[in-house]
Amino acid sequence: MSDALRPVDPSVKYKRIVLKLSGEVLRSGKTGDPFDRAILDKICAQIKEIHDMGVQICVVIGGGNIFRGLAGEERGVERTTGDYMGMLATVINSLALMDSLEKTGVTTRVQSAISMNQVAEPFIMRRALRHLDKGRVVIFAGGTGNPYFSTDTTAALRASEMHADIILKATKVDGVYDKDPKKFPDAVKYDEITYLDALKQRLNVMDSTAFSLCLDNSVPILVFNMAADGAIRKAVRGEKVGTIVR
């Protein structure tokens, strides 16, 4: 039913989402390789689960498992060049995710902000919306197409353009804390926090540009632990998981 209008499960609260993934989540913890097939398959299984529930899904994935623009400066790579290298890394990750998703039977399209017609469609807003209406997962690659902007900003921008109900930011922690829970055992987790409070407390939810876009366009952000069982399913149902910023 990937290319047809699909019924939406009545338990679904968020019918159109942007799933923001860090490229680092794909890295193998055992070998250090950029891709861990088991992790990739687990992510795709969760995406397929909510796809089968009728949720319209956009994905933005980083490239940090391959190359991170800011890290390039430490290696002597000029910042603008490094950022473009990072954008190309997101295309590699997007193609890997597409391949894995389509093996589960989920029709997927990759749209890139940088023209590369042999491997991805160009980003065209109306075409992306049409793909969503047809039940296809759309993966946005190549960042915004401009240096100095993160994939967090890409997620915020695409969520605004696609009129998404929410950004689901998958992380390795189970929400937003008042301080780093790995360093401070007394760190307090927020179930919900406002954009302004998160900014005032300098909480590391998203970078400031992405945050401003979400604030201006009233796009809520749910920060949650991707590794938890059924995390994405619970998130789209509006169950208590992670921290919501609105």
State the helicity in percent bands: 25-40%
Rg of Cα set: 17 Å
Report, as a whole number of angstroms, the end-to-end distance: 33 Å
User: Which parts are unreliable, with pLDDT below 50 for 5 consecutive residues or more?
Assistant: none
CATH-defined topology: Carbamate kinase
Number of H/I helices: 8
Q: Mind telling me the CATH class?
A: Alpha Beta
> How many DSSP E strands?
11
Cross-sheet strand order for the largest sheet: 4-3-5-2-1-6-10-11-9
**Structural class assignment:** alpha/beta
Number of domains: 1
Overall spatial form: globular
Work out the strand percent: 15-25%
The whole-number mean of residue pLDDT values reads: 91
The main β sheet shows up as: 9 strands, mixed
SSE sequence, one letter per element: EHEHHEEHEHEEEEHHEHE
CATH superfamily: Acetylglutamate kinase-like
CATH architecture: 3-Layer(aba) Sandwich
Question: Can you summarize this structure?
Answer:
This protein has 246 residues and is an alpha/beta fold. The protein is built from 8 helices and 11 strands. The mean pLDDT is 91.
What does this structure look like?
There is one protein chain. The protein starts with 15 loop residues before the first strand and ends with a strand. The protein has one domain (about 15-245): 3-Layer(aba) Sandwich (Carbamate kinase). It contains 8 helices and 11 strands. It has helices at about 35-50, 70-75, 80-105, 125-135, 150-160, 195-200, 210-215, 230-235; strands spanning about 15-20, 55-60, 110, 120, 135-140, 165-170, 175, 190, 190-195, 220-225, 245. Helix 1 (about 35-50) links the parallel strand 1 and strand 2. With about 250 residues, the protein is α/β, with parallel strands linked by helices. The strands form 2 sheets. The chain has a 9-stranded mixed beta sheet with strand order 4-3-5-2-1-6-10-11-9, with helices on both faces.
